[in-house]
Amino acid sequence: MKGTIRIDQERCKGCALCIEFCPKKAISLSGTLNLKGYFVASFEEGSECTGCATCAVMCPEVAIEVFKN
Amino acid sequence: MSGNAALGEAAILAGCTCYFGYPITPQNELTEYMAKRVPETGGVFIQSESEIAAINMVLGASVAGARAMTSSSSPGMSLKQEGISYLAADELPAVVVDMVRGGPGMGNISPAQSDYFQATRGGGHGDYKTIVLAPGSVQELTEVVPLAFDLADEYRNPVIILGDGMLGQMMEPVSFENIKPPKKYQKDYILTGAKDRPSRMVRSLLFDTKEEEEHNWKLFRKYQRMERNEVRYETFLLDDAEMVVVAYGTGARIAKGAIKRLRQENLKVGMIRPITLWPFPAKIMKETAQNGAEFFVFEMSAGQMVEDVRLALEGKGHIHFYGRPGGVIPTPIELFRAISRHYYQSRRGKK
Amino acid sequence: MKQVYSRPRSLKPAHFHYCPGCGHGIIGRLIAEVIDEMDLREKAICVAPAGCGMLVYNYFDIDALESAHGRGAAVATGIKRVRPENLVFSYQGDGDLAAIGTAEGFHAANRGEPITIIFVNNGVYGMTGGQMAPTTLSEQVTTTTPSGRNTKVAGHPVRICEVFAVLDGTTYLERVAVNKPAAIVKAKKAIVKAFRTQLTGKGFSLVEILSPCPTNWKMSPIESCRWIDDVMAKQFPLGVVKDVT
């Protein structure tokens, strides 16, 4: 796995922009709610994430941190 | 020197480095004077696109740490009210000059005092106050203007100088020796870029009502301090006065002329001339009323300060009123006749 | 694993109050990233508007103040004239700049004030609940144009960049968008160029940013992003409108 990301559950508002624009479709909307009552996006471990940070570029809440090998 | 020009020079000597103005009679000479002098002293002069822009440029210059001033006349002053409310809420110093003219509406360009309420009660929104200074002569401008800047910095609040068209445009000899170099005020609230310190925020939006209330009471306590410490007035032949004229600015000059004439006919008339219209000199009026003097309020308006006199006396004192709105400038003779008529009526009433 | 992306230093830890998918969040982050990369955190002063963007002073870890609605350009003028060495930018929405603040913006531009205006154009008044803005499109439904904006009675959508381009005082004007990765990268470059225009004393710069407002457009964040390309950008063409740096 070349890269991974960490999503701050409490910042995420489930806008799904990261899901839409992730080239590897490595993020999906989870069923868990955060304190504000949003369904939060979650990163699928073992996906083909390359650490390209497109998700972080799209995120309006600055909720995503990206890591790369 | 004209009042407007003298005001400008006094401001510069008092450390004003930023002036933003917009043309409006009867204060154009001030804008024109600053257009020449401010750049000479390395300061910032902008003729803005509107009085609204001017007051907001003052806000910007003030939050950046400069002594800033703007000036206008009645209609322009109405446009600045929002800005003044923000200056008070943000606790920022500024000096705003209003050369009052006949109103309301377009009115005319003749001197008047019909903006007393707007200045002293505050024409903007919210519970705020501004110290309002009323100079009586061109020479007095050299005391009032530096005072205005010092009070603005000391209390971090806008200060209004309320003149009128006559004071602005009349020419009188004036000396500036009495103006001392401006005091340095420690400004730990100004925005200079968060270098070697945490970032600063200047704002008046407080969603949390508790915070907003506390902010209001904090401002209220500041205004109480002003009321305790900053009242200023001048008295004239008050000791044996049976009738006390209350007038300010140009009105007081006319009244002084009338009183001298009345004294020649040994009518015991004196005067209290408020220099700070807010905080209003209520105490001296109450004390004067206690020894039985009656009051004769004279304003170049339909009567606004008269209400403050009424409030000050709380019913313990008889108040006569004589007003000429619309930019009419009564002569001392006219005032002399009015006062003497009231004087004799009240004496017959006492018998 | 090496961290390749983290929160910009110039952003405070506070959570954004914006609606899900709102462009303000992206724009705020871009500005913070640019301030970090150009090492401007200790020189930057932000003038915040009234409107959705007003709480940027809770988010930017720089000196900031809130101006009355529409007066940002005048306040920024006052600050910049007193502190020319600082980076001064006015963050304004379409109501703040293109409606009530037109005169202030127009004349700051006309005087060539060396300030930068970040003009967020999302076609509506967001904070107050989705009313028509000067940039609302013809036939666009808002809470004050319930049957669609009728340009005969409610005026036409205003192209601020093109209007300001006619003023000799303006130096750099570009319209960008934050509705997809490529556009966001361009938007960031435009902000860098605008700040550089200011710091090198070349004059007035304005970056107009088409920004999604899902809540008031009554669309999903993703549909809003598409709508910007499919509809909005027709009225507000992207690209450099003026560059005389």
What does this protein structure show overall?
The complex is a heterotrimer of chains A (69), B (351) and C (245). Helices cover 14% and strands 32% of the residues of chain A. Chain A has helices spanning 17-21, 54-58; strands spanning 3-7, 27-33, 39-43, 64-68. In chain A, the strands form two sheets. A two-stranded antiparallel ribbon of chain A has the order 1-4. Chain A has a two-stranded antiparallel ribbon with strand order 2-3. With 351 residues, chain B is α/β, with parallel strands linked by helices. Chain B has 13 helices and 13 strands. In chain B, the strands form two sheets. A seven-stranded mixed β-sheet of chain B has the order 2-1-3-4-6-5-11, with helices on both faces. In chain B, strands 8-10-9-12-13 form a five-stranded mixed β-sheet, with helices on both faces. In chain B, 52% of the residues are buried. By secondary structure, chain C is of the alpha/beta class. Chain C has a single domain, classed as 3-Layer(aba) Sandwich (Rossmann fold), CATH 3.40.50. Helices cover 38% and strands 20% of the residues of chain C. In chain C, the strands form two sheets. A seven-stranded mixed β-sheet of chain C has the order 3-2-4-5-9-8-10, sandwiched between helices. Chain C has a two-stranded antiparallel sheet with strand order 6-7. In chain C, helix 1 (23-37) packs across helix 8 (181-199) and helix 4 crosses helix 5. The B-C interface holds B 17-18, 20, 44, 46, 48-50, 52-54, 56-66, 68, 82-83, 86, 90, 191-196, 199-205 and C 41-45, 47-48, 54, 57-58, 60-68, 71, 74-83, 86-87, 103-104, 106-107, 111. Strand 4 (64-68) of chain A pairs antiparallel with strand 1 of chain C.
